[in-house]
Amino acid sequence: MTVELVDWGRLVTKAIEARNNAYAPYSGFSVGAALWTQDGEVVTGCNVENVSFPCGQCAEANAAGAMVSANRHSTIHAVAVAAVSRHFVWPCGRCRQILAEFADGDTPVMAVAGDQRSAPLSLVELLPHAFATLG
Ligand code: THU
After folding, report:
1. Terminus of the chain with fewer CB atoms < 10 Å: N or C?
2. Residue 102's pLDDT band (cuts 50, 70, 90)
3. For residue 114, pLDDT beyond 90
4. What number of CA atoms fall less than 13 Å from residue 95's CA on the CB side?
5. How far is it, in rounded angstroms, from Cα 80 to Cα 78?
6. Taking Cα atoms as reference points, which of 84, 35, 39, 40 lies closest to residue 62?
7. Is 59's C-beta closer than 6 angstroms to any atom of ligand 1?
8. Above 80 in pLDDT, residue 2?
9. Where are the domains positioned within the chain?
10. Among this protein's residues, is 60 annotated catalytic?
11. Ligand 1: distance of its center to the CA of 8 in Å?
12. Of all atoms in ligand 1, which is nearest to the CA of residue 46?
C-alpha cells in the first residue's frame, strides 16, 4: 500500500475514537491506534492501564491483538497513532516490534497530536534492523 492510497481521514478518525476510549487513569495520557488491514478494514485499540503499572498495555499492542482475534492478521497496510499531546507521539520500541510482525518496512505510520497530523514515517524508519528470525 503506497502512502497516497491510504484513506488517512478514516484511519485518523478511528484512532481518535479509540483514543477517546483509553483507560489511562494513572498517566492521564490517552492513546488510540488504528490499523488498516489487508481487507480494507480498520481495527483499533487504546491503552489500558493497571494499578500494577507494568501490567498496562499500549494502544498499538491492543490493536494488534484485536486484529489477530478478528482473524484479520495477514498484513497491516497503514497505522495511525493518536495521543492527547502537544507533540507527535510515535509508537514505543516494543510496539514497533509488534507492528513489524504484521507489517512491511514501507508500511506508513502517522502520528496524531490532538487533531494535528504528522507526515507519515515508514516502519523501517521507526525500526531499522528489526529483530527477525525468518528470511
Ligand atoms: N502508550 C501507548 O499506548 N503507546 C505507545 O506507543 C507509547 C505509550 C501508553 C502507555 C501508557 O498507558 C501511556 O501511554 C503513558 O506511557
Report:
1. C
2. very high
3. no
4. 26
5. 7
6. 35
7. yes
8. no
9. 3-126
10. yes
11. 22
12. 3
> What was the pLDDT predicted at 4?
66
β-strands 42-46, 76-83 pairing: unpaired
Residue for grid cell 482473524 = 71
Please tell me whether residue 95 adopts helix, strand or coil conformation: helix
What is the C-alpha separation between 94 and 49, in angstroms, rounded?
16
- 3-126 has which CATH code? 3.40.140.10
C-alpha cell of residue 60: 498499538
| Residue 62 backbone dihedrals phi, psi, to 5 degrees | -70, -35
Amino acid of residue 54: P
Q: What is the pLDDT of residues 13-56, one digit of tens each?
A: 999 999 999 999 999 999 999 999 988 899 999 999 999 999 99
Q: pTM (2 decimals)?
A: 0.94
Residues in the chain: 135
**What pLDDT score was predicted for residue 135?**
61
